Amino acid sequence: MAVKEVHEYAKNLVREKKKELKEKASLESEDMLSRFLSSGHSDEDFVTDIVISFILAGKDTTSAALTWFFWLLAKNPRVERELVKEIMEKSEASVYDEVKHMVYTHAALCESMRLYPPVPMDTKEAVEDDVLPDGTVVKKGTMVTYHVYAMGRMESIWGDDWAEFKPERWLEKVDSGKWKFVGRDSFTYPVFQAGPRMCLGKEMAFMQTQRLVAGIMRRFRVVPALAPGVDPHFISFLSSRMEGGFPVKILHRETSHSN
Ligand code: HEM
């Protein structure tokens, strides 16, 4: 019943978009579904499945990423200042051009997902007998879990300052004095998983979250409205949750007192 409802919802989105595209006869809308349909993928069931997988994979993950990001930012005014500086320096030009140069924002998002990965752990089942690179034997049918949350907090990987929210660990200064982003391999940082079944939406996730952060931070401050001294409670479910949601006050940046 619930599955049918989700299917119907997604199918309706596809049908409506098809109708809209037919009526307009040209691609005026630039959303992803329009692009999909206009690039030769017209089979309704196929496109419906794509819509469902993108909604399931892309909604709770990006919202979890942003929830914890704004919490960490509020606790680290120094990082917020750096971030706002970068955002204010960028124009409000085209989406892609704008975010492509936001290295500090990109680094801050990577750093926040290190401490609070939107998918905190992930389990796989061996379809055949296998041996892990360290020699561990894995029998067919065994479930193996990799723990992204724990890996993001391991001193052996991140050093003794692992508990600090420090975007600089993803950056190095180049000769011009500007920051350059230095990524980590996906096996060290499996926030988007690693190997052939890695997240297909990784680039889009960064594009969306960077764009959102820039749009919000340029004009507003996001101030936690939790009781003084209360830290939010992390819930590890399929995606990372903040217990009870994240109550915030939104203040105009120019009218609120600066950090
Ligand atoms: C911060 C945001 C995101 C994070 C942390 C994230 C993380 C992940 C992870 C860990 C997986 C592997 C799941 C598994 O194998 O059990 C995955 C798969 C996937 N993700 Fe994302 N994701 C994000 C955003 C998105 C977005 C925005 C989209 C699409 C618009 C997307 C599309 C997908 C798809 C289609 C898969 C399945 C890939 C496959 O099985 O071959 N993700 N993602």
Automatic annotation (TrEMBL):
Q: Which keywords does the record carry?
A: Heme, Iron, Metal-binding, Monooxygenase, Oxidoreductase
Organism domain of life = Eukaryota
The question of whether Iron is a record keyword is answered with: yes
Query: Which Pfam families did the record assign?
Result: p450 (PF00067)
**Signal sequence residues:** none
Known cofactor(s): heme
InterPro entries xref list: Cyt_P450, Cyt_P450_E_grp-I, Cyt_P450_sf
Instruction: Enumerate the residues binding heme.
Output: C199
Decide whether keyword Metal-binding is in the record: yes
| Recorded GO MF terms | heme binding; iron ion binding; monooxygenase activity; oxidoreductase activity, acting on paired donors, with incorporation or reduction of molecular oxygen
Which family does the record assign? Belongs to the cytochrome P450 family.
Q: What is this protein called?
A: Cytochrome P450 94A1
